Amino acid sequence: MSADKHLQSWQERFEMAEAMQPLLGKLYRNQGVEVVVYGKPLLNASTIEIIKAHRLVRRHVGEKLRLRESFPFVQALSKLAVKQCKVDIGKLAVNYWRDHTDVSEIESYMAKELADAIDHADDVAPRDVVLYGFGRIGRLLARLLIERTGRSNKLRLRAIVLRGGKKGDLEKRASLLRRDSVHGPFNGSVEVDEDNNAIIANGTYIQVIYANSPDEVDYTKYDISDALIVDNTGIWKDEAGLGLHLKSPGASKVLLTAPAKGAIKNIVYGVNEGDITAEDIIVSAASCTTNAITPVLKAVNDKYGIENGHVETIHSYTNDQNLIDNYHTADRRGRSAPLNMVITETGAAKAVAKALPVLAGKLTGNAIRVPTPNVSMAIISMNLNTETSKDELNEYLKDTALQSPLQNQIDYTDSTEIVSSDLVGSRYAGVVDSQATIAEGKRAILYVWYDNEFGYSCQVVGVMQTMLGLTTLSLPA
Description:
Strand content: 15-25%
Number of domains: 3
InterPro entries: GlycerAld/Erythrose_P_DH, GlycerAld_3-P_DH_AS, GlycerAld_3-P_DH_cat, GlycerAld_3-P_DH_NAD(P)-bd, Glyceraldehyde-3-P_DH_1, NAD(P)-bd_dom_sf
EC number: 1.2.1.-
GO molecular function: NAD binding; NADP binding; oxidoreductase activity, acting on the aldehyde or oxo group of donors, NAD or NADP as acceptor
Number of strands: 20
Enzyme class: oxidoreductase
Pfam family, one: Gp_dh_N
C-alpha cells in the first residue's frame, strides 16, 4: 500500500468515527442505550478511541472489524425502539459478516438479536445519589456519574457532602473536579453557583452541603429523597458508624468505598453482587486491591482449584501517607511517601474470602507502598490443585477476559513494553500481564495491574447500580 493509500484509509476511518459520534450520543441520551465494541465503551469516546476500539477486535476474534462494517449497525440501532440496555455492535457485526456479504438484512438481523430490548418498558424511576466526601474516589465517581448525564440516566448525582465551608471552599472543590494531576482535565465544563452553594458540571446540578457528621443533614431540604449515600471518607466502617447516614431524612441506603467491619457485606462487582438483596441498606464495595484480585482468583479457582496462596501488593502511595517524614499512628507510614518504598499491611487477601468464601483461610497478603501516584500491581502466588503451564494458563485467562461473565472486570495484555502509567484510566478491576506469568506443574504466579483509583471507581458504580436495582440488559447475550 502506498503512502497516499495509508493516509486515505486513515481519513476514511476518522470520518466514519466522526459520523458515529452523534448517533452514539443520541442513543444514550434519549434511549438509555450504551454502545460498546467487545466491551469497550463508546459513550463520550473520541474519534481516536472509537478507531482503537475497532482495532482491538482482532485480538478478540483474530480478524479485523472495519468501521465501515460496524457503522450500518449503529445506523440500524438508531432506528429501532430499543431502550435501557447495553449493545455490543462489535459482536453483532462480526457475527453478521461471517454469514452475509451485504447490508440488506442488517435491520432485520438487529431487530431479531435485540428483540428483548425493543419497546422495553422504561418504568424504573431515576434514583438520587449523594457523595459523602469528595477526595480521590469521590471526584472520580463524580466524573463517572456525570459522563452518563442524560434524560434516560437512572443514576443521578444530586449532592456532595463536605466538612469545612470556609470562604473560597466551593471554588477550590470545583477546581479539583476540573483538573486532576493523574487523570487529566474534566471532560466538559464546571461552573460554580455561589448563591446556591452548588457546582454545575455538564448540566448536572450538584448541591454542595457542609456537615461534620453523617446524621446532620436533611436531604429533603434539597429535594433529595430515597437517596443512596456513597461514603468515601473511610472514617466510618462499621454498622453503627455508617448507620448514622440513615438518620438523615432523605437517605435510604449507604455504600462504603472501603472494606467494612463486622457483618456488612463486602461486594466485588462481577463476582458476588448477586448477594445484595433489597433488604441490604448498608454495603461495602471492598478495597481496590480486593476488587483487582478477586475476579482473577475466581477464574483460576473455577478451573484449577487453589490450595493456598500469597498476594503481594505493590501499591501506589495514598493520601494517608506523609509527603515528608512526620508523625503517623501507623507503622512506617510516617516516612516520606515519594521517597521510600514502605512495607505495610493489607487486609485484601483476607477480604477476598468475604466475596469468595471458597478461598477462606487459603490466602495471606502484604503490601509495599511505592513512590508512584496511581496504578498498582498484585503479585499472586498460588499452589493449585491441578497442573498447568504458562501458555495454558495465559490462554485460559485471555479467553476469560474476552468471553466470560468476568470480561468487564478482567483485562489481559500480551505487551512486552507495558508499564504502570499505561494503565492510568483503565476501567477494569485488574489487568493480567501475561508476559510475566509463571506456571509450572501446580505452581503459578500471576502479575495483575490495576488503576487503584479509576478502575476501582468503575467497580463502585456497578455496586451502586445493583443496590438500586438499576441493572442493565446486555445484548447480544
